[in-house]
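Quick one:
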Amino acid sequence: MTVAPRPGASPVPAHDVTDVGRAAEGVRRVEWAEREMPVLRLIRERFAAERPLKGLRIGACLHVTSETANLMRTLKAGGADVVLAASNPLSTQDDVAAALVDEYGIATYARRGEDRDTYYQHLNAVADTRPQLTMDDGCDLVSLLHSDRPTQVPEVLAGTEETTTGVIRLRAMAADGALGYPVIAVNEALTKHLFDNRYGTGQSTLDGILRATNLLIAGRNVVVAGYGWVGRGIASRMHGHGAHVAVVEVDPVRALEALMDGYQVMTVGQAAGWGDLFITATGNVNVFRREHFEAMKDGAVMANSGHFDAELDLAALRAMAEGHVREVRENVQEFDLGGKRVHLVAEGRLVNLGAAEGHPAAVMDMSFANQALAAEYAVRHHAELEDQVYVVPEAIDAEVARLKLAAMGITLDAMTPEQAAYVASWRQGT
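Output:
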């Protein structure tokens, strides 16, 4: 897929993007995001000076957005040879993909709306570069290597994983003894899930639904399935816009927390006939199924903020509609179930990327700072790690928080010597 170089330019890297001619548009978007990513910029400056990733082949499967582009630039500045594929068929920003190839010299395989075959062709193109470190968002690249290319697995020093769904899959692999190299769960960093998952997904999910539907949220019954950090963020934002919020959970502690946060707690069956808008954020499969679609109101709207569209039983929904499906707005499909209509946003894929632009750059600044520093850590320490899933080291978490506060002009107090001695002592009491 290599194309001819521009006159006087370096060769354009191998790629498969929709239109390289949109690169200038993508550069503007990448530069706009960079203004909100001071932590990653500071890391990039250090990486450019120290080159801690020199010669390392990194294969990345991430959402191809302006924020991701700034992460790729940082890894390249650190000396890595980077190749990128999209982690979701609807999450690619085509102009950014063009800019990555044409302006930043990063091999990129991503087209918005690509079909399943193209998606896996792109993953295989990444695997063809024989990566020594994988960087995943959903575990698809890791899964491909272990399932279809097991002879390459010993070549991989380590990996990183961006999202909850991927961490779940990786831990299942580790529990089965199937994981062939250590992976750092970036999603588990406090400066990732406390902020990205809650504030980033909360805002961007609302953004995607509003862009697609233009619904008034105030006064509407909104059902949030899952009360992890993503569900917490979505529920909070919906409540802030005046919605009546109900939470569906299987974990009793999380359900109790949702109740004490002021939300109703229902079973899926109870919620199906009550809700006007349904949002899944569980990381599981078939949360809403045929019996729930049958109970929903005419005009109900469904959206998904989990990584995969499997959270909604779309096969059952299509079968119930018997071909009576039409697009009523951009990114909104209407399913006629015979006497009532239910609506699906962004084909049931990640609504914040399928119908909007994903998380704000300011919150992805912390997530991708963790990715960059986790990659550096993995290169330095991979020989000491077992084939397991690891959380981000506390020192990296603290450094990301420190840099973020400094970039925001915020300083913290330090304990006095007396206070430090007090908290280190067991002898002082009442």
